[in-house]
Amino acid sequence: MPAGKIVFTYTMIPNNAKEQQQIMPRNKNRQTHQKHTVLAKADHGTFGRNELAIAGTTCPAVQKLAAQLSKSLSQKYRIGYVDAEHSNETNSDQDRAKTYTDTDLVHIRTESAQKFNCRKGLDNYQARSMFNEADLILLNGNHFDAQNQLTVIDQRKPVAPERLTNTKIMVLQEGVTHVPDYVKQNIKEIDRIPVFKIEETGKIVSRIDQLLEAATPSLKGLVLAGGKSTRMHTDKTRLDYHGKQQRLYLYELMEDYCNEVFLSCRKDQKKGIPGNYNIITDSFLEMGPLGGLLSAFRAYPNSAFLAVACDLPLLSPQTLQALVENRNPSKIATAFQKNESRFPEPLITIWEPKSYQVLLTFLGMGYSCPRKALINADIQLLDPPDPRELMNANNPRQYEQALAQLAHTS
């Protein structure tokens, strides 16, 4: 497949023609089952959040265009690619994997990539897991459907009207001068869809970039106020450093940088919070800050969260602004590193929606430390404008030190 920085490539080896259409067909006649708790679900296609099938042309032409697009887009985004195996292709790694006829999963490490060959096909849920970190998934539309489509007009392989699904971009193959009438009649709002020539790769890339920018997850604020403050011997979220409770101060501070802000707390803490503040109560219990993060993502799986702990009394608007301005939505998270340890500080971090699955995976392996997830994930690590602002105040001595520093700088 395509050259470029591909986060994951999946090539399906179908046993029959039907398997090329879907990974795991859903039973449309199945009655909705309401016995279990209804959860907010992430906006996913079959493979991921942002899918674009290239359809309407030959498979070699699809692969060539996908290679060109991924090469350019991978400078900014993480790109995935999905295709089916073709009879005229040779792949030494795949051939080697086929020798392990009784092995369900084969891992092949090469100089440029790590490859997995699965004897059993991926179902929808496994596919989404594999492509979790991809910002865009390009698919061969001759074999797979997707949320959105880049439709190529090619006389060699006219696209069937029923295959036109949510077209976002039209591309004219060499020798084609216009979009056929039957295509126009089967695409809603055809006049709003840009049309490019196949050789105008730069313009196609620019349009895809615009679509991805528009799909950037909104940023919500999360004040982590659900701790028990055992070391401070009093509720540190209620301590007054700036003329009001710290949890309320941070809430109001973050309103300038987030679309919406929430206080994260335990259920028993709700009574002490004024009614005009948004609240997310912990649904993942006894897990510390990780429980607050997971509870927030459970409620809003399509949003990113700027999470801030209440034990950062020196935090200023300038530091929050620096974090937001340098946010990298293509990464799992954007965080500051502490000077003394060089480790990321997880409790003043922007966590992207794709981090939800990462955090759950670490939880499933028995880890409840958000920092461990950051250390072992692909994150954007920043130097803080003022490292002193990352000082934690978790006990009475640190509380007095914070008050002294604030008095000195005021």
CATH superfamily of the largest domain: P-loop containing nucleotide triphosphate hydrolases
Named CATH topology of the largest domain: Rossmann fold
SSE pattern: EEHEHEEHEEEHEHEHEEHEHEEHHEH
Distance from first to last alpha carbon: 59 Å
Whole-number radius of gyration? 25 Å
CATH class label of the largest domain: Alpha Beta
**What is the percent of helical residues?**
25-40%
Question: Which structural class matches the secondary elements?
Answer: alpha/beta
**Total number of domains:** 2
Q: Low-confidence spans: pLDDT under 50, at least 5 residues?
A: 15-22
The beta-strand count equals: 16
What percent of residues are in strands? 15-25%
Strand adjacency order, main sheet: 1-3-6-2-7-8-9
What CATH architecture label of the largest domain applies? 3-Layer(aba) Sandwich
| Largest sheet data | 7 strands, parallel
The coarse silhouette is: elongated
What's the pLDDT, averaged over the residues?
87
Question: If helices are DSSP runs of H or I spanning 4 or more residues, what is the number of helices?
Answer: 11
Pfam families: NTP_transf_3
Domain MobA-like NTP transferase: 221-364
Keywords: Cytoplasm, GTP-binding, Magnesium, Metal-binding, Molybdenum cofactor biosynthesis, Nucleotide-binding, Transferase
GO biological process, one term: Mo-molybdopterin cofactor biosynthetic process
Structural descriptors:
Spore Coat Polysaccharide Biosynthesis Protein SpsA, Chain A; seven-stranded mixed sheet; single chain; 410 residues; seven-stranded parallel sheet; alpha/beta; 21% strand; Rossmann fold
